[in-house]
Design a protein that fits this description.
Mean pLDDT: 75
Largest sheet: 16 strands, mixed
Strand content: 15-25%
Number of domains: 3
Distance between the termini: 28 Å
Shape: globular
Length: 742
């Protein structure tokens, strides 16, 4: 019999209720304090009278400043000091507009305030866009460190705190922001910020959400109390401000486990309070243009996209799953089942059109049955007419969720879908999802499916222009049951391949595709021996590559990979070259002459340790020093032979990072990108020999950016703070795997 982990007798129910009420009441005060502490960058408009003040975003409660690193970084507006404001009864879209009544000056009209405003509306709008919409902030050379997958689950596009602060300055600013649709169309809902009531699971009741019940009196589940309110009201306000234009919606953990320490396999999740009502209002008006979901609850995603997914004909039992051939799996993923396709126009007319005069009891029963069937089919075959981008990221920390149901979103129900990103947990099979692959132009796949399945799906993508694929399969002993034919991706212009598997099974995919129109290639692997097949891919395709990105993490490049051969092959057409690695052996830039080359970025994790007086200290003259001098000597020749116009277009970036020996038993780039508990990288002076070379290149008109780093180790308290921040940013694991992070 499953047992609960941890005691539930911790706090009384009345005490928790009082805490939640107190948290909700104090939210506005906390929000004001957080915003007032922000750095002042943009001054409010100058006026003789105190400007009108707009209440924070939200209809039912004030909206707090988002508790996230991003909001703290991008919020840069200090609200004006306001004395004792009182409502004057003006309402705008559910928000109360208030004005100060304690100012000794005479009240000014809106026209007076506008005349005394320093900035015109166009300038203000440019400032609003700069503050509210988060643009790319990566300053690492070559844009390394930028996630290959969608990062919007953690990095909000809209700075809600900054938007709320700007709207609180005056009524003119509030009206300008309210009328700008683009400042409201990107909606991010983090379910972890929505207070969700704990429940208790009744044993032996089956995997039904109705099996949950309220905790007994005085017993409260050990859930973290969330004192933040306003997530759903703010989302509803954004929908209202978007004026029924297509929206971009991001959902993080839209459901939750109300009894996380009760180990009952197959238990259902519950939707966050207000989530279903919000989604119903949004989806009824075909407004979703982009939908991104990150969750452990794969069932929620499937039922949202394909209502009625739990009908008996959609379930695939374990024995049937194990008996499916590769060809059948590919067919299910690309074509689906016959029951997945249905044309609503072929439905028979309702009973009201068939009968005239007084209806008999039998006729009324037939009409009612037809109405029920029509409603069921229309719910089952829901259409997403404007959805052009769909992203799904599933996480499953343990065995509590079963995934045996199919989900179908064929072309007749998603006619506009062009961009699909799937990052699926190992227990969530790719072929249990049916999508219109032939109409896709952008595809991202990160699964543990073998290459034969991936090739079968990619072969159906006849319109594909961009492909990002992660190869994770670790079972090379299983022989494919399907003969693989060569595939020509005739329209593909961008290819990104990340190899996470340690086996050689990945070669099956690389050896069976050709990309004659490829312009951009990105290779991501920490095993240098996995790179040679890409040279064969380029030779076989005969493409003219313009961008080449090689991400080897902090792995040393040795003779297992002929980097010089690859550069020689792409030299006639390449315009951008970026390499991230450890030490690079051999004369890899020898005779490298690229007439169209404009941007070169090299990240070398080669700063090592040396022994001095019996102690290991940092050695800035390690392998990174030698690589830097080698690259700079080549760059000097590259700049010397260029015209003034060519020099103005050419740019060199070099960053020296710590080698693994300096990074505390982790990769050097983990320290550089802030994902290591060992410490962080800081800027440091480069060696004198390197600085002199940089000066020589700049003297001849070369555009060069060189950075040297050093490692600052964390103290014990900083390590504890780092772990605390990780726990805040990432979902709490469930069940037995409590220490695993997604």
């Amino acid at each position: 019999m499953p047992k609960r982990k941890g005691s539930l007798q911790k706090k009384s129910a009345p005490r928790k209720k009082l805490k939640q009420e107190a948290g909700a009441a104090s939210t506005h005060t906390e929000d004001t304090q957080q915003q007032t502490a922000q750095n002042s960058v943009i001054a409010p408009p100058v006026a003789t009278a105190t400007p009108s003040i707009v209440q924070q975003e939200g209809k039912d409660a004030p909206v707090p400043t988002p508790v996230s690193e991003e909001s703290a970084q991008f919020s840069s507006i200090e609200p004006p000091l306001v004395v004792e404001a009182a409502s004057i009864g003006h309402h705008e879209g559910g928000e109360t507009v208030e004005a100060s009544t304690s100012d000794p000056l005479a009240p000014a009209t809106a026209e007076d305030v506008e005349k005394k405003t320093i900035l015109d509306p166009d300038t203000l709008m440019r400032i609003f866009y700069e503050v509210i919409i988060h643009g790319p902030s990566n300053i690492i050379p070559g844009n390394f460190g930028t996630p290959w997958h969608f990062a919007g689950y953690k990095q909000f596009i809209i700075n809600c705190s900054g938007r709320a602060t700007l709207r609180s300055v005056c009524k003119q600013w509030a009206d300008l922001i309210a009328d700008e649709i683009n400042l409201w169309r990107d909606i991010h809902i983090d379910g972890r910020r929505i207070p969700s009531p704990p429940k208790c699971w009744r044993e032996g009741g089956g995997p039904d959400p109705k099996n949950y019940e309220d905790p007994p009196e005085g017993e409260v589940s050990d859930l973290r109390v969330v004192d933040i309110v306003g997530e759903m009201p703010r989302a509803a306000l954004s929908v209202e401000r978007s004026r029924e234009s297509p929206i971009n919606l991001v959902l993080v953990d839209p459901t939750y486990d109300p009894d996380p320490y009760f180990l009952e396999p197959g238990r259902a999740y519950l939707p966050r309070p207000g989530m279903l009502d919000f989604l119903q209002a949004v989806m009824d008006k075909p407004m979703a243009a982009s939908l991104s979901i990150s969750t452990e609850d794969v069932h929620f995603v499937k039922d949202l996209l394909d209502p009625g997914v739990y009908l008996s004909e959609r379930s695939v039992d374990k024995a049937e799953m194990e008996g499916l051939t590769d060809a059948k799996k590919i067919s299910l993923a690309c074509d689906g089942d016959q029951s997945d396709h249905f044309d609503l126009s072929t439905l028979p007319p309702s009973g009201a059109d068939n009968f005239n005069g007084v209806r008999t009891r039998t006729q009324r029963l037939i009409e009612e049955a037809n109405a029920i069937e029509h409603g069921r089919l229309r719910k089952k075959f829901k259409v997403w007419p404007k959805l052009h981008t769909l992203r799904i990221c599933t996480r499953d920390e343990d065995f509590l969720i079963y995934d045996h149901e199919r989900c179908a979103l064929p072309s007749e129900r998603a006619p506009a879908l062009r961009h699909l990103e799937l990052d699926l947990h190992s227990e969530h099979k790719l072929w249990l999802w049916t999508f219109p692959y032939p109409q896709l132009t952008h595809l991202t796949l990160a699964t543990e499916e073998p290459s034969v399945i991936l090739l079968g799906i990619i072969s159906r993508c006849i319109s594909l222009e961009s492909l990002s694929i992660t190869l994770r399969h670790h079972d090379p002993e299983v022989e494919p049951t399907l003969t693989v034919e060569p595939i020509v991706l005739s329209l593909l212009k961008k290819l990104s391949v990340q190899i996470d598997a340690a086996s050689t099974e990945y070669r099956l995919l690389l050896d069976h595709i050709s990309t004659p129109c490829l312009q951009s290639l990105e290779v991501i692997t920490r095993r240098i021996y996995q790179a040679p097949p890409f040279i064969h891919l380029l030779r076989r395709s005969g493409c003219q590559l313009r961008e080449l990105r090689l991400d080897f993490s902090s792995t040393d490049v040795d003779d297992k990979f002929n980097l010089r051969e690859l550069l020689y092959f792409v030299a006639p057409t390449v315009e951008s070259l970026a390499i991230q690695s450890g030490k690079i052996a051999g004369p890899w830039l020898e005779e490298f002459s690229a007439p169209n080359l404009q941007n070169v970025a090299v990240l070398c994790f080669g700063i090592e340790k040396k022994v001095s007086n019996g102690k290991k200290v940092e050695d800035i003259y390690g392998a990174a020093h030698d690589i830097a001098l080698y690259v700079l000597q080549w760059a000097e020749k590259w700049m010397n032979g260029a015209t003034e116009v060519e020099k103005s277009k050419r740019r060199i970036e070099f960053l020296a990072g710590p080698a693994p020996s300096m990074a505390g038993y982790t990769n050097g780039n983990d320290v550089l990108y802030g994902t290591s508990v060992y410490g962080r990288c800081e800027s440091a002076p480069s060696p004198d020999t390197v600085r002199r070379m940089v000066s020589r290149i700049r003297a001849i008109g070369g555009n060069i950016d060189l950075r040297w780093t050093t490692v600052r180790r964390f103290t014990t308290q900083q390590k504890m703070d780092w772990f605390t921040q990780i726990q805040k940013d990432e979902p709490r694991p469930r069940g037995v795997n409590m220490m695993q992070r997604w």
